[in-house]
Specification:
By secondary structure, this protein is an alpha/beta fold. It has eight helices and 20 strands.
Length: 407
């Protein structure tokens, strides 16, 4: 990517958000006991950009997501302290199922989780403020790789009655988008990255409900690897792509098996992903310095399932947020839900920007957003979704319209 003059400023920061007290871990209703230790630390990572008075801040948080109505308070904590416009903030969770359950409701959540969530707002504001304070002339570049870590999880099995059904498992016969999207940010005139952002489509569920150790799982461990590999103050913000129907190749393990020289699968898979990011990042020439910034966000109402299903409202709709941004010739789309892989591919293909990064669990937590054909197949994602058939295609089309308005 060639630059045209100088003007882009950027800054990156990381802050530790590992719980100091035992907490209820999010992601599995069957797991109600408190956490029993920390395998690897949790972080929040911020990458901030500014040009011509416009800002864009991309935040990755090592957590399941902003359920229990926590997106609004956490976003407001950042917006208020950092004087950002609502559309300028992408607050995204990586969807690890081994992080604290977020809640501000003392009547429904453990006291340690409530205290953790309250403190998290301040930490998120701090990491964004630090990234903004570090704004300096910078260059960016993008690259693309591929990884086999993620696989379609909607396995087709045959019951004793001879009928087929969809279960959560492994279905490698379905083609998926395995792209590893990478953005490199370097200080002006430097080759060493100050930040290496990456997005990849998989659930971070290599660890299952029998695991009680805190962990960043696939995405978090990959980011930690990259930060150790490049060293210094390099920050590796990590994002979950369109992965509503994608799991890691090895999933829902009870813990980190390491006896008899066994390499724990969460470490193995995250390292495989991280090394691909590193390979791509080392080939990127960060040279674009003129990157106009435009941002937009909205909450749209999608057709919902019948009243009473998945807690939907009586008006027949269910909300989801869409956030879009342009950074020069690069675009970002953040969906506030677990969007199916095919929908992310559709947005990337129809977007007027190359590349278009896809983030999920962004600025909201609307749950699963399946494709229309998946409804007749059934399965967990379809059963738990709030949305009626066609909602997924509608948000993909709306995201593309929003992107075109940024041109």
């Amino acid at each position: 990517m060639s630059g045209h003059g100088a003007g882009l400023r950027a800054g990156a920061a990381r802050i530790d958000v590992t719980p100091e007290q035992p907490v209820v871990l999010a992601g599995y209703a069957s797991r109600t006991n408190l956490s029993e230790g920390v395998h690897d630390p949790l972080s929040a990572r911020a990458l901030a950009f500014e040009q011509d008075g416009r800002r864009l801040v991309l935040v990755s948080l090592d957590n399941l997501g902003f359920y229990n109505d926590t997106a609004g308070p956490l976003r407001q904590a950042i917006l208020g302290k950092c004087q950002l416009e609502p559309s300028e903030l992408f607050l995204c969770a990586i969807h690890t199922h081994s992080a604290p359950l977020l809640t501000l409701n003392a009547a429904k959540g453990h006291a340690n989780n409530v205290a953790y969530t309250k403190a998290l707002g301040g930490k998120l504001a701090e990491v964004v403020r630090t990234a903004l304070d570090r704004l300096a002339l910078a260059e960016i570049g993008v690259g693309s790789g591929s990884s086999p870590v993620g696989v379609n999880r909607r396995e087709v099995v045959q019951g004793k009655d001879g009928k087929t059904r969809i279960v959560l498992g492994r279905n490698p016969s379905v083609l998926t988008d395995r792209e590893v999207q990478v953005l490199k940010m370097a200080s002006l005139g430097q080759t060493q990255p100050a930040a290496l952002l990456f997005a990849y489509a998989t659930h971070s569920t290599s660890l299952g409900p029998k695991n009680y150790e805190v962990s960043g799982d696939i995405h978090g461990l990959a980011a930690q690897f990259l930060e150790k590999y490049f060293g210094g103050d390099m920050v590796a913000p990590e994002f979950a792509g369109a992965s509503g129907n994608i799991d890691p190749w090895v999933r829902v393990l009870p813990g980190f098996k390491s006896d008899k020289s066994w390499v724990p699968e969460p470490v193995l898979m995250s390292t495989l992903l991280a090394e691909e990011v590193a390979h791509v990042g080392e080939e990127i020439r960060a040279s674009e310095t003129n990157c106009p910034i435009k941002t937009a966000w909205k909450t749209i109402q999608l057709p919902a399932k019948a009243e009473g299903e998945s807690g939907n409202s009586a008006d027949g709709t269910a909300p989801i947020t869409i956030t879009v941004a342009r950074l020069g010739s690069v675009a970002f789309v953040g969906f506030g839900g677990e969007v199916f892989n095919e929908l992310g591919t559709a947005v990337k293909s129809a977007s007027p920007f190359r590349p278009t990064f896809i983030f999920t669990h962004c600025n909201g937590a609307a749950g699963y957003v399946p494709t229309r054909p998946s409804y007749s197949e059934g399965g967990y994602e379809v059963q738990s979704s709030s949305f009626a058939p066609g909602g997924g295609e509608q948000i993909a089309e709306e995201a593309v319209r929003m992107l075109k308005e940024l041109q």
